[in-house]
Amino acid sequence: MRFFSVVIPVFNRPDEVDELLKSLTLQTYTNFDVIIVEDGSTEKCDQIVESYLSQLSIQYLFKENSGQGFSRNYGFERAKGDYFVVFDSDCLIPEDYFEKVNQFLDHTPLDAFGGPDKAHPSFSPLQKAISYSMTSPFTTGGIRGSKNHAGTFHPRSFNMGISREVFEKTKGYKITRMGEDIEFSIRVIEAGFKTGLIPDAFVYHKRRTSFSHFYKQLHFFGRARINVNRFFPGELKAIHALPAVFVVGLFVWLTTIFYSTILFALGGALLTLFTFAIFVHSSILNKSMDVGILSISAAFTQLTGYGMGMISEVLKPRGNQPFSQK
Which residues form the Glycosyltransferase 2-like domain (predicted)? Predict the structure, then answer.
């Protein structure tokens, strides 16, 4: 019977930890423990954790701030499980998550795995719209957690599991921010380990709760994608560059108003069609026109934020040295 150790790095998010731990108390498969790694927070969640001691096998660890990658390593080093499972603190875990993972591993052994993310029915329209933009086929989110993902599946650390052997051989995260999970997944694959997507092992990911915070997060993601390419040249695929192409395309389209009315009208028509497709698809998927309208802003925020992040990191005068500590 597999034993899982859940490792959750936390920074100033006690309320989120409370909701996450509550969802873990409802699991139908209970052969797991939980390690909360408080990464130098000023708003600690120690009292929250204490309130769950009678319901979960859980330990609370406090350390100086070093970022999520190294905080996960800190938890891995102290974990007892056969598999180490990583969740972001803003996730809610369906009650059959570990049961689905365990059943999948019975017939398809994997050294490292990941799952999709979805919007919980209780999420606000804005949260649902942001979730849609991160998973939609009309945005780059469509390549995450999809059965039709291109190439070898790269687990992402909002919902990720690795075997003990993977950690012992790779030594975990090599960088702590700026694409740390992508860099880690690449090394796991290059070490010869088998990775895969478990489609039914999804989590409800709350993400950011405002467009300004969402933009900042995606801008950081865009920078991270360029940073990973410094470690592994060639890992930046054409599909990853689409947000940057989108941003450049918007700029070029806007400039056509000064020299070509026809090109400006054609570009406007294509943009209108794209916008309408997002609205219709999201409205049907979420059964809400309000979410559909918000999804337009979410998709544009995602694409421009990610694209501008990529462009700014490419233009930044930092040579070829990868970002690792800050």
Answer: 5-168
